[in-house]
Amino acid sequence: MQEISSPEPLQSPPAPAIPPFTPRRRAKLPANGTHDSRNARDILNQMAVHSRHPIGPPPTAPARESTGHLLLRGYTVFVLFVALATTFWYNLVGFVGLGIILAAATLLSVGLWISFRPLVDWRRLPWFAVGYVAWATASLLWTQWLDASLLTWAVLVSTTLQGIFVATVLSWRELVRAIASALKWVMGLSLAFEVIVWFFVRHPVLPNFLNWDDEIVTELYWSRMNLFDWDARIQGIVGNAHLLAIAAVLAIVVFGVRLASGAPRPGWLIAWIVLSTFLLWRSASATAWLCLIAAGVVLGTILLMRTTSRAGGRTKWYALYAGVAVVGGLAVWFGRDLILGVFGKSSDLTARTEIWDAVWMRIHEHPVIGWGFSTPWIPWEPQFSDWIIVNDLPVFHAHNMWLDALFQLGIIGTLILALAYFAFIWRSWFFATDRPRWDLVADRPYQALTVLPSLVATILLVQGLAESRPLMEWGWMFLVMFAMKIKQSPLVGAGPAEQRLAMERGERIPETR
Question: Which of 97, 246, 265 lies closest to 183 in space, CA to CA?
Fold first, then answer.
């Protein structure tokens, strides 16, 4: 019988050989520059592919401003300094030299405008301010003093162009910084000038460093050498105590805004505020102190309005302030003699009432279209040189901007000016009191610099009650500049110029301060 063999047991296939464990070694980049940089990039790419952890982009240097833009910012500081200290250049280089500086700066600004081609929404110009310039241009057809009108009209056009130029080539933050820099020059040079006159010159200084033998009217001196004469006023580089005081008020406001915005080197800003306060005190201008008090009231009102969190919450505050304004106005009117005595002024407001009466007499002759544009009144024009004389000197403005506009451009020009200020105040108020919003997010923090246009408008309005300076020099330039800036960039970081500058610097999110 055949023996049956048992089947062989099934065997599993042999397991694959497992290679011995070897730790991964980190790829090393060439330490020296002898190898090709392409190999280094290949190694980095392989590491990125095999890694389970994402890697970020390689670090890059922060974006830097171009040299051309830095030079442009420096030039705008010079333009603002010329506007803030126009009388300084007049006292330094004379009328002809000042004219050359203004003409050269205007031509250079036009050339830079053509070169840089800033983005501008031409539909959003400060049209009422432009309309005032247009009506001043039309007054050349009926003006009673053509030479004075042509000269001052050219300065008005130059100032308007400079305001639009600065507003369109700088962002909001650069604009505030440029104004602060120009004011530092005015404050610093004013103190340095008075120190030099006191310690080295040792006698009062006349404009253009002239030396007249005849008896000089005190008001003609550039510096009266009063730095340490504590009962007398100092005049700084601008050669006028009132102009120095208003510049000091503006400096305190601008430096304070910069300080609240978190600007670098706050200690230096505090030092500049102290210096500006000292110059304000030594210039002893009642109008300037009223400007500072009014700016403080407006600032407090803005901060109070910012505390409301629901619709209609501001109505009660508006009603309260309206009542306070009415009561305060009546108190000022009936107690004006007492208030003027506190500030050391006579009841005639330093001969201003005489000036106003004389101007009113001329207004009645041409009430609708005025006598013709001339801001300021050119002193060598025969109709001005012998008209109103105060302290043996011809007066060169009406010491009230509304009366001056009514005298020169009539009811029509005054109405256009009022509309320009109303539009500026309206936009600057909501620019300061409303939260920045461009989407559904409604709780973004307020920004400190947004209060500056409202405070500047307050200073100009209060100064305009006793001076005509808001119609000329930095007063008119700042009105045009801020009105233009708010219309072009109603939000900090928004608008054509703001977006272009942000893209040039590589910024993607506007700052929140």
Answer: 246
In angstroms, rounded to a whole number, what is the distance separating the alpha carbons of residues 293 and 245?
Answer: 13
Cβ-based neighbours of 428, under 8 Å, separated by 6 or more: 453, 454, 456, 457, 482, 486
Residue 267's SS3 state is helix
Mean pLDDT of 22-32: 51
* pLDDT tens column, 118-152: 888 888 999 999 999 999 999 999 999 999 999 99
Q: What is the pLDDT of residues 174-209, one digit of tens each?
A: 999 999 999 999 999 999 999 999 999 888 888 887
| DSSP string across 431-485 | HHHSPP-SSS---PPP-GGGGHHHHHHHHHHHHTTT-SGGGSHHHHHHHHHHHHH
Nearest alpha-carbon partner for 350 in 284, 254, 298, 411: 284
CA atoms of 505 and 138, how far apart (whole Å): 43
Q: 234-248 b/e with 16+ CB inside 10 Å = b? A: bbbbbbbbbbbbbbb
- The phi, psi pair for 205, rounded to 5°, reads -115, 135
- For the record, the structure tokens of 15 come out as 């397991």
**Three-class SS state of 223:** strand
Long-range contacts of 294-302 (CB under 8 A, 24+ apart): 294/458, 294/459, 294/461, 294/462, 295/249, 295/253, 295/455, 295/458, 295/459, 298/454, 298/455, 298/458, 299/451, 299/455, 302/429, 302/432, 302/433, 302/451, 302/454
